[in-house]
Amino acid sequence: MLQLYFSPMACSLASRIALMEAGVDARYHQVHLSTKTVVDADSDFRGISSKGAVPVLVLENGERLTECAAVLQYIADLNPERGLAPRPGDADRYRLQEWLSFIGAEIHKAFLFPTFWYKDDGSLAKPRARIAQTLSVPSAHLADREFLIGHSFTVADAYLTWALLLLRTAGVDIAQWPSLSAFSERMQKRPAVREAIATEMALRKMVATA
After folding, report:
1. Strand-by-strand arrangement of the 56-58 sheet
2. pTM listed for this prediction
3. Is residue 207 part of a domain?
4. Residue 73 sits in which domain range?
5. Distance (Å, rounded) from C-alpha 11 to C-alpha 162?
6. For 6-40, what is each residue's pLDDT tens digit?
7. Residues 97, 74 share a domain
């Protein structure tokens, strides 16, 4: 069975959504990122991944896969009939990679990561100034589309759904971009997305009150 190392409401939420949308069973291991501890084993997470970051997907053969874009595409390809990624060789496969790269580099790493992990000593001014311009790209793209790619849900939509949730927590009101707000609402109506978010929100509350 696959194993996913995750932290509640971290970017690994997109991987949980993908697994549930794909109908793939997995064993989930919660990680405290601040202490780099695997909760159920009370062990050093860096023994699982020297990067010390989630997600980490442990494959059936024991190999470990990291980085959101790679993990999401791997999960999508486990059950291609679900259409979570265009098939290899399809031109839209490159559109998928394009959006995964954009979300990862321009929203996740350029804004969300420093916002939640760096001390706001003035160094966050540039990322905050840039985020509106960044969000205008998917906003314009989704103005007349239901999904980022084609006509069905893909793992890129899972990644953007997570990013939009965290933007709210980071103090960015996505209501400024009606198409993004509408997209977020549509995605959260999907049963798998709704269940994944509820599960991780509950776990996050447990951590906060522990």
Report:
1. 43-44, 37-38, 26-32, 2-6, 56-58, 64-66
2. 0.95
3. no
4. 2-83
5. 7
6. 999 999 999 999 999 999 999 999 999 999 999 99
7. no
